[in-house]
Write a structure and sequence with these properties.
The protein has 220 residues and is of the alpha/beta class. The chain contains 7 helices and 12 strands.
């Protein structure tokens, strides 16, 4: 995924669906598709980065739809909107947000779920092998660099882009859940710290590059 995250909303309530779609699209900078029924959701599930399922669907309960999506081979992260906060109520879902819904909470949960996707296998960054599970980079000669959760999320997102530039606004949305309209130096601070950890010399930017209003990895 090199552009804004693609989110599918499967929500029967028209007002709720429109409100959520507008918030995710305008405030969080995501690309949102909408449908009101389980059957239509199944038809549109391919090619999405995350699917939001409301438990209250006219033609099928949301938990049942999550199970059916898995049975159809859909591995996309599933986020259930539910009156219950217990994730065991729907084992097929990867996350639960309780109702009544708070839009900021929903956007932050989506950003968290997108950020924790596993990195592509075998990603190398110059002399480093990226191991997201252990939150570290391992050098060719055995050196180990420890990473924070946010640093792992940034490298995962850039690793998924396969060397393409990821816009600053996309990183802020997916890693922090920030709106594109927010002015902050949070990302730049984390990039600076990452460069100090992984670059081969002071002031050099040969592995984590800033280009065209975003960042990319020099991957191999």
């Amino acid at each position: 995924m090199s552009g804004p995250p693609r989110i599918l909303l499967i929500v029967a309530d028209a007002l709720l669906r429109q409100t959520v779609a507008e918030h995710l699209g305008l405030a969080a900078g995501m690309t949102v598709s909408e449908t009101a029924t389980a059957e239509a959701g199944l038809a549109q599930a391919g090619g999405q980065d995350l699917i939001v399922v409301d438990e209250a669907l006219a033609d099928r309960d949301g938990g049942g739809l999550c199970r059916r999506l898995r049975e159809h081979g859909i591995t996309t992260p599933l986020l259930l909107l539910s009156a219950s906060a217990d994730p065991k109520s729907c084992p097929a879902a990867d996350g639960v947000v309780t109702k009544p819904l708070r839009l900021a909470t929903l956007a932050a949960k989506i950003a968290e779920m997108l950020a924790r996707r596993p990195e592509p296998a075998g990603v190398r960054i110059g002399p480093w092998l990226f191991d997201a599970g252990r939150r570290q980079l391992v050098g060719d000669e055995g050196a180990v660099v420890r990473l924070t959760d946010k640093e792992v999320a940034i490298l995962c997102r850039l690793g998924h882009a396969g060397g393409a530039v990821v816009a600053r606004e996309v990183l802020l949305t997916e890693v922090w859940g920030y709106s594109a309209a927010i002015t902050t130096h949070t990302l730049e601070t984390h990039i600076y710290r990452l460069r100090r950890k992984i670059e081969t010399g002071p002031g050099r930017a040969g592995l984590l590059l800033g280009e065209n209003g975003g960042y990319r990895l020099a991957v191999s």
